[in-house]
Amino acid sequence: MTPSTITRHAMTRTAPTAEAPNADPVPRRRPILFRREPGEPAWINPAIAAMMVAATTVYLWNLTISGYGNSFYAATVRAGSTSWTSMLFGSLDANNGITVDKPPAAYWIPSLFARVFGFSSFTVLLPQALMGIATVWVLYLAVRRTNGKIVGLVAGSTLTLTPVAVMMFRFNNPDAMLTLCLVLGAYFTIRAIQSDRAARFASAGWMLGAGLILGLAFLVKMLQGFMTIPALVVAFAIAAQAGWLRKIRDVVVAGIGVCLPVGAYAAVFAWWPEGSRPYMAGTESNSFWELVMGYNGLARIFGNSGGGGAPGGASDQAAETAGGGAAAGAAAGGAPGGGGPGGGTMFGGDVGVFRMFNSGFGAEISWLIPAAVIILVAGFWLTRRARRTDDTRAALIVWGGWLIVNAGVFSFMEGTIHPYYVVVLSPAVAAIVGIGVAEFWRGRRHSVTRRTAALALLATVIWSFALMQREAPDWLPWLRWVLLIGGSVTSVLIFVGLPRSGTGSVRRGAAVLAVAALVFGGLGSGAWALATVGNAHNGSIPTSGPSAAGEKGGMGQGAGGPQNGAGGQGQGDGQDGQDGQNQVDQQAGQGQGAQQDGQGQSSQPGGGANGGGMGGEEANSELTDLLKNAGTEYSAATVGATSAASYMLSSDTEVLDIGGWMGSDPYPTVDEFKSMVDDGRIRYFVAGGMGGGGMGESSSSEIQEWVKAHYEASTVGGTTVYDLTKEK
Known about the structure:
Blueprint: H1 3-9, H2 44-60, H3 71-80, H4 84-89, H5 108-117, H6 121-147, H7 149-160, H8 163-168, H9 175-194, H10 202-221, H11 229-239, H12 244-271, H13 288-293, H14 298-302, H15 315-318, H16 326-333, H17 345-348, H18 362-365, H19 369-382, H20 391-412, H21 426-442, H22 447-471, H23 477-496, H24 503-533, E1 585-586, E2 595-596, E3 602-603, H25 620-628, E4 634-639, H26 641-651, E5 655-658, H27 670-678, E6 682-686, H28 699-710, E7 711-716, E8 719-727
Parallel strand pairs: 4-5, 4-6
Antiparallel strand pairs: 1-2, 2-3, 6-8, 7-8
Helix pairs in contact: 2-6, 2-7, 3-5, 3-26, 5-6, 6-7, 6-9, 6-20, 6-21, 7-21, 9-10, 9-11, 9-20, 10-12, 11-20, 19-21, 19-22, 20-21, 21-22, 22-23, 22-24, 23-24
């Protein structure tokens, strides 16, 4: 059988013809949502509805088990729910002292929810779940347009049960909104690609929409929002029906769309008087563009060489070094806080082509990557002679380019990287798998296609078995054997094919094998994802999977107990040797007991609508009451954003974050802090926190020394507190 014969039956929706390469495809009707088209099975629309019900259930079920999730971002939502300025700039507190060290767009929608419905665990986490549900739906719509409803159904279902997606669509890090924006950008680009040549401005409109939404993605997570652009531009340049002049025009229009939200926000930030907006965390010069080009931008890719405001170029990893001091940080990565070139590898393992399969990332995303790679290679080979505007090849360029670029950057970046970043890979993997499943079915009568499908299934079940064995050997051990044996037998039967004793029986047998392949192929990933639903996730670095797998890299947070106050720098060492990173010691189970990290910090996730972020020890109630009754603009000040955030959540007062995430940012200066104290704006200084004395000559260490020299210390609930109205 020649490749051209296979191509007519598999991996393409339209047969290649002798027409010129740039000719338009034959017009065909697009399926209409929830209207059964001729030839569609009766079950397809109910199955699509069931997919959306499943996504809604998985992402919303017992959502508040995680309390406030990441208290750092929850405090930002709290501030935005009461202050429009705080919402606009992403301030950590409602008095607009300092921002979080990210752009603010991810907190706009949750802040509006909290403003309308009241601030609670539910209003913090609900927007993330809704964005996850919307992502599944938009992915379905995008894949449906190129490959039909059944393929869209498989892609949407696969995304629904991807472990890292289940975790992040139930958590309040910025990645849920980022992923939604990226999928919307792909959908708009596909609409532009398919715009009729006769509609002169339709493609430009869709490309403008793609640019605007990707510009918004930049305001969610900066340069990561641009990582799908190469794939989208290449797909549009190759597959769009327009001529080259119109293509160039539309790409320029898309570029303008990208610049509009970014430029508008940068202009507002620059125009707004510095005294009435928060300081830009993560920078030395209070500059939005420094944040873009510094440790939240180029330093994420190249390590400390990218510069940045935080020592070591990695503020959101420094908190995890055991002992919390400068010496520990230097041991971890060569700079305070474990930064330095390559410092991010303490979270992601060694850089290299197999990084997505290591113990940090593997269980989050890699279950179906072997199948996706096989499908991509086969797909590009078998569609090489298809017409330029072929839908399936265009889809493979979009989703395959997305996967290659993002996985490549994540695999080789030298700066800070965390396992949950790979949630942006999940739509691409899901779309590619969906396309492969459908095209394997179409080409099932041809040995090359059938054997490729068998290889993809076998690779999936073997790797799924290995992942489950490595990550949680004591969790449902029978399941991985069922997966391995059942999937291997199914792949062998697909490889050898069914005897052609009768057309009806062969078709029924093929259908049974197809269903078995879907079940065994998705069993590992789906089971791991569903096990994620029952677990609370707290801290800065959540991970998916059953509780038996542990919280690798999850950083405990919250107001401390008797160790040394909120985020007090205790002597605990949470390192378990996993990729050289510090791990959380779960003291009493997810959602109930206290967590303790390398700093001796503790937090109790709490489990209801009011839980999360605050330590549950009885001694902490004394400090909480003290802050509630402070009666000043800031009830207290403390070093480090996590500690300040936890105090704000527990006391519902404003707490000044000194020095940003790790206490290394030059805000406030010593003189500014003294002025605030003299004006009666701050009542207490809470000792401990992150950074501070371990950050060399930073303003935070100078402030701590000044407070210790001039004010009396007392112990409140095991925490050292200085009353800034009582001098020595």
